[in-house]
Amino acid sequence: MTFKQGIFYQIYPRSFKDANGDGIGDIKGIISKLDYLLQLGVNYIWLSPVYASPNVDFGYDISDYFSINPEYGTMADMDKLIAEGKKRGIYFVMDLVMNHTSSEHAWFKSSLDPNSPYRDYYFHRPGKGNKLPNNWTSFFGEKAWSKNADGTYYLHLFAQNQPDLNWDHPMMYEEFKKIILFWLNKGIKGFRCDVVNVMCKTDLENGKNRLFLKGLEKYQSTPKNHMYLKRIHKELIEPNGAFLVGETVMINTQQANDLLGTESEKELDMMFGFEHMDADQFLVKWFKRKFNPDKFNRILTKWQLELPWNANYFENHDQPRSVSRYGSLHYHKESAKMLSTVLLTLKGSPFIFQGQEIGMTNVDYKSLDEYMDIETKNIWALAKKLWIPKFYRWHMIKTVSRDNARSPMQWDAKGGFSTGKPWLRINHNQTIINVEAQTDDGNSILSYYKRLIKIRQQHPVLIDGDFVPLVIKKGVFAYHRVLGNQKILVVVNMSSKYRKFKHSMDGEILLQNYPPLEMKRLRPYEARIIEVQNDQV
C-alpha cells in the first residue's frame, strides 16, 4: 500500500493511553490499542515525538534523537511497537524536528563554550550595544533571542528552550543524515517534518516592521531550505522507499508546489497547509472571527485544485477540536459526521487526530492553572502585558489553546486513559463521549468513521479521482470525485439551517449522517455520499 491509499492517524503519545498508571501515555499503551486502530481502518500512524526531551514543549524540544523519553518507555518498547504495527499492516511516521533542538541537547550545551566545535551549530551572537542582535520575534509571542551566561545571545524562533540550528554549518546535514537513517533502519516509513520551511536563514539582519513575526521574510522557504529538502529526499528518503510530510509555515499554493518539487527533484511528498486553519481568524490564531463555512470551503477547493496531492486535516496536536470549531455541540453527532465526510472524500491523504473519530470536543477547564501548554501561558502573559481585558484573554485561551487537542483520549465513561491521575485533566464529557459507548452503537460517530473509511477503500475514485467543485454557497459544499466513468457526489451542509440543493442527488446513497428521506432540502449539518450511475454521468 502506498501512502496515497492509506488512512493516517495521529497519536499524541502523552495523551493516548497510559499502560503503567503514572498518568502519562506511553508506548506500551499504544501497543495495547493497535487492534482498535486496525478495526478503525488505519494504515499509518503519525507519532508525535517520543524522543528524549525535558518536555518544555512536550517533545518538540528534543534532547536526544537516538533515545526514547523514559516517560514513554524504552527503545525495546519502540522496536516492539514498530514490529506489532507491521504484523497488522500499520506503519509509522515519526515526527522530525530539524529547525531546533532542546537547550538540553548535548550540542547546545557544548556550544555555550565559544571555543567548542559545536559553537556554530546554533546562532550565538553579540548584542548591538544594549539591544538584541536583531528585532525578530518568536512564534510563541516572545523576543527571538535569549541571553547566554557570557553576555551573548542565542536565536530561538520558538520557546527559549528551543534554540535554532544553523543549517549553514557543513555538519548539520551529516548529523541529520545519521538520525534519519537510524530510524529508517528500524522500519519507519516516513517523517512528518516540523516547521520544515523555516530551517535556513538568509541573514540575521532586522526584519520588516510588522505586528507579529518580525523577521519572517528572512527565514521562510529560503533557497537553501529548498536545496536541503531536495538533498534529503534524493539521498535518504527515495532510496529507502520512504516519504516526507511537511508542516509548512504561512505559505500559499504556489509556495506549496515549490516545496513539493518536481518528479525529478522532489522535496516533500505532501504537506500540511494552514490557510484553511486561518479562515476563522484575524491576523493570528488567537483572534477569532465567526466561522464562515463558505470561506473555509473556498480555501479547501483552491488547495484541491492547485496541488497534485494534499495532506487533509481538520485537527492535530496544535489545533482546537474541529467539532467545537467548525461544527455544533447542539448537533454534535451530525456535525462530527459531516466533517468526517469532507475529510475522507477530498483528494489527498486524510489525517485523523486521536479522539476525532469519536467527536471529542474542546476542554472545559475553568482556570489557567489547568492548562499545561507553554504557548498558552506565554500568550496569556503577553495579552496581559498588552492590556487585553481578562474576559477576552480567557476567550482566547478557551477557544485556541493547544490543550484543547491534548486532553487525554476518552476510552470509557471513567476516562480509561490511566489508572492514575492524568497529567492533563480529562474533559468532563468523557461520560458520554467515549470509545466504549460508541463501539457497539451502529449510529455512533465511531461507526460512521469505520463505514466511511471502508467506502473510501472500496471506491478507487475517492483516492485517484479528480476533484470537481459544484456548489459553495450558504454553507452548502458539494463536489464530484471523477475517475473515468465513475462519479461520486459529496454534498454537505455546514450550517445549522435547512438549505435547498437544486442539483440532482439521484444515484445510490453510499452513506449519509441522517435517516434517509426523499427531500431536496439538506438538514442542519447533513452529509450525503452518492454514487452517480453511469447513465447519469
From TrEMBL:
Pfam families: Alpha-amylase. It comes from the Bacteria. SUPFAM superfamilies: (Trans)glycosidases, Glycosyl hydrolase domain. CDD domains: AmyAc_SI_OligoGlu_DGase. Belongs to the glycosyl hydrolase 13 family. It comes from Paracholeplasma manati. The lineage of its organism: Bacteria, Bacillati, Mycoplasmatota, Mollicutes, Acholeplasmatales. This is Alpha-glucosidase. InterPro entries: GH, GH13_cat_dom, Glyco_hydro_b, O16G_dom_2. Residues 10-406 form the Glycosyl hydrolase family 13 catalytic domain.
